[in-house]
Amino acid sequence: MDFTELLNKRRSIRAFEPKPVSKETVEEIIKAAGKAPSWKNSQTGRYYVVMSETALEEIKTECLPPFNAKNCADAQVLIVTTFVKGIAGFNGDGEPVNNLGEGWGAYDLGLQNENLVLKAAELGLGTLIMGIRDNVKLKERLGIPENEEVAAVISLGYPAVSPSEPKRKEVSEIAKFF
Ligand SMILES: Cc1cc2nc3c(=O)[nH]c(=O)nc-3n(C[C@H](O)[C@H](O)[C@H](O)COP(=O)(O)O)c2cc1C
């Protein structure tokens, strides 16, 4: 599949087949995430992969609002994504290098996560990036260290739907040329 085809194929998936996803497949997808560029190659993105039936149920019911729990009801995997704070965008003595501060950690994680969802799409899997989640409960449940910030929860599974592309802005609306 060429890159443009892959870009067009990836969609947010909110209904999944109840078909298992192997650990090896998840590892392959996370390996692709790790190929992303990062601030001074600091690679501060982290992944907490939830695959067991009990843990999936707990995270869906306790850490997601009902509408997102419904969006991932049959997802076989939930990947909680975090980044280690105070590294990307910071200098050696812990001062932010510029205006974006911890935003650079989130930026790097976003780059990784785009790789992750594209690799999943290439392998015929669907994903949904969920930004609406309970970060405090996720930290508690998964024992995520204090120095990590929770960002998105990404559901993963074999898609049961094939949505069409939501309307995109024109290049002229998002870019200015000088
Ligand atoms: C940072 C981020 C947070 C999102 N949070 C949610 C969410 O909590 N629930 C949801 O259903 N979709 C969520 N989405 C999915 C977007 O609604 C979706 O990407 C957008 O409508 C474009 O559709 P597409 O992904 O199929 O291109 C999120 C996407 C991103 C990138």
Task: Report what the structure shows.
There is one protein chain. The chain is of the alpha+beta class and 178 residues long. The chain contains 7 helices and 4 strands. The protein has helices at 3-9, 23-33, 53-63, 66-71, 103-122, 135-142, 171-174; strands spanning 45-50, 77-84, 126-130, 148-157. A 4-stranded antiparallel beta sheet has the order 1-2-4-3, sandwiched between helices. The chain is globular and about 50 Å long. The relative contact order is 0.24. Bound molecules: flavin mononucleotide. Flavin mononucleotide (FMN) binds at residues 11-12, 68, 71, 128-132, 152, 166.
Features:
178 residues; alpha+beta; NADH Oxidase; 4-stranded antiparallel beta sheet; 38% helix; binds flavin mononucleotide
Name the beta content range. 15-25%
* Main beta sheet: 4 strands, antiparallel
- What is the CATH architecture term? 3-Layer(aba) Sandwich
Rg estimate, integer Å: 17 Å
How far apart lie the N and C ends? Answer: 34 Å
Chain-wise SSE layout:
Elements lengths: L2 H7 L13 H11 L11 E6 L2 H11 L2 H6 L5 E8 L18 H20 L3 E5 L4 H8 L5 E10 L13 H4 L4
Antiparallel strand pairs: 1-2, 2-4, 3-4
Helix pairs in contact: 2-5
The structure holds flavin mononucleotide (FMN).
The site of flavin mononucleotide (FMN) has 11 residues, from helix 4 and strand 3.
